[in-house]
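Propose amino acids for all 278 sites.
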């Protein structure tokens, strides 16, 4: 499909999805939401894509909800004041109806995408932008990136599962700090608390992210990537024994896979791997 709010390209096994409203710091709106979901579906289904990078055009990653949309929400709320609250509008259909129910909500579908997602946070990351970054499997930040949860400074709550995601990444106290205060933090502090796993100079940011993404796309079994991603996310809802049992069940399939045979063969033969994902 033709996109208005995002850019989509495939480069050496890596699908690069770029939020593309740079004049608005890639502020989130309904069209962007629909297009991102469609692009994630395309990348997930494309056998040539092994890794997905999500980033932003210009100076921002995503500065949160578009203020025009928030103003409309305020106006609608005032119009309904004193009346019976309207029922919540239904969200989009599940990204993958066969996936775990937790992954079928409006913004929680990234875990159901069967390929690793790297959030490449080039600049401002706020509100809904922060939510989307947290649902990614990894977060790399440029040294120009700035983060804020934003919600408490708009009179809002910890939206879209961020109260579940953030403590798992940075711990309860850091999560409370970031959610209560909505203060801005820069990349070094985000790295220190575990919000991101790497900080890269802005001048080298795109190139360094792509080096890592291409490494995953060319040197690692795509079958393993998909299976391990699923295991990591599902383990958040399991006890240790359940995670062990699930891994043991998965192991039998890996032993008879073509990628396991290739993984052994390329190591023994001291050559580059030629994984197929089967």
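Proposal:
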């Amino acid at each position: 499909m033709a996109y208005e709010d995002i850019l989509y390209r495939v480069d050496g096994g890596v699908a690069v999805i770029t939020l593309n409203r740079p004049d608005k710091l890639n502020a989130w709106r309904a069209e962007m939401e629909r297009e991102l979901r469609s692009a994630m579906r395309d990348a997930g289904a494309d056998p040539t894509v092994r890794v997905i990078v999500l980033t932003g055009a210009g100076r921002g990653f995503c500065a949160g909800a578009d203020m025009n949309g928030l103003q409309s929400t305020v106006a609608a709320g005032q119009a309904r004041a004193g009346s019976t609250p309207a029922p919540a509008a239904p969200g989009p259909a599940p990204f993958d109806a066969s996936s775990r129910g937790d992954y079928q909500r409006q913004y929680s579908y990234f875990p159901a995408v069967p390929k690793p997602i790297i959030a490449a946070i080039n600049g401002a990351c706020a509100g809904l932008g922060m939510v989307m970054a947290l649902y990614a499997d990894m977060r790399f930040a440029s040294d120009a990136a700035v983060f804020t949860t934003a919600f408490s400074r708009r009179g809002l709550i910890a939206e879209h599962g961020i109260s579940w995601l953030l403590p798992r990444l940075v711990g309860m106290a850091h999560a409370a700090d970031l959610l209560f205060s909505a203060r801005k933090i820069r990349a070094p502090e985000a790295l220190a608390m575990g919000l991101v796993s790497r900080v890269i100079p802005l001048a080298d940011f795109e190139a360094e992210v792509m080096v890592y993404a291409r490494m995953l796309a060319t040197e690692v079994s795509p079958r393993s990537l998909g299976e391990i991603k699923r295991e990591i996310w599902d383990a958040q809802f399991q006890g240790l024994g359940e995670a062990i049992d699930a891994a043991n069940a998965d192991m039998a399939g890996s032993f008879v896979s073509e990628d396991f045979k290739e993984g052994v063969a390329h190591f023994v033969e001291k050559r580059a791997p030629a994984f197929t994902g089967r």
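The CA atoms of residues 51 and 215 lie 10 Å apart. Confidence is low (pLDDT under 50) at residues 73-79.
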